[in-house]
């Protein structure tokens, strides 16, 4: 897992060329002017999903990992929380879905709690079991807009 600000994109040159290209895309495009949906960046090697949603009740998703893709979770609006742990410490919940590239896991204690604000991202590798949690604040609806970039391993 790598967590940081998109503002430091120029300093991420040590990352693989594909990850760097994905991060560069996030920085160089006006994502707020784009509709929610899926966008190709480099064919099936790198693509992005823009997502907007409102949180009225707590979200506590299942832990998941991916084998074929690295996830880059980037927050455009709002705040997103991730719980992250080493997948070797998690018990699978069901079979790996090859079509969706996802393995879900049984709940357990996590190793790290990351809060991402606008302009921040987290790069999650295949060994990083992760789940999203969101809570309405003071009974108010929380609006979140994020990009999830998938980078083929």
Automatic annotation (TrEMBL):
InterPro entries: NanQ/TabA/YiaL, NanQ/TabA/YiaL_sf. SUPFAM superfamilies: Clavaminate synthase-like. It comes from the Bacteria. Pfam families: DUF386. This is YhcH/YjgK/YiaL family protein.
């Amino acid at each position: 897992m790598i967590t940081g600000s998109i503002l430091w994109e120029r300093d991420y040159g040590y990352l693989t060329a594909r990850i760097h290209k994905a991060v560069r895309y996030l920085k160089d495009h006006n994502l707020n002017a784009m509709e929610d949906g899926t966008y190709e960046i480099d064919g099936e090697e790198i693509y992005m999903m823009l997502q907007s949603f409102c949180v009225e009740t707590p979200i506590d998703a299942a832990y998941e990992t991916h084998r074929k893709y690295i996830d880059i979770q980037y927050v455009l609006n709002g705040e997103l929380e991730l719980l992250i742990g080493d997948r070797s410490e998690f018990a699978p919940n069901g079979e790996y879905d090859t079509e969706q590239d996802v393995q879900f896991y049984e709940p357990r204690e996590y190793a790290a709690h990351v809060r991402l604000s606008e302009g921040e991202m987290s790069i999650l590798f295949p060994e990083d079991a992760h789940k999203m949690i969101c809570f309405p604040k003071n009974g108010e609806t929380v609006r979140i807009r994020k990009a999830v970039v998938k980078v083929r391993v």
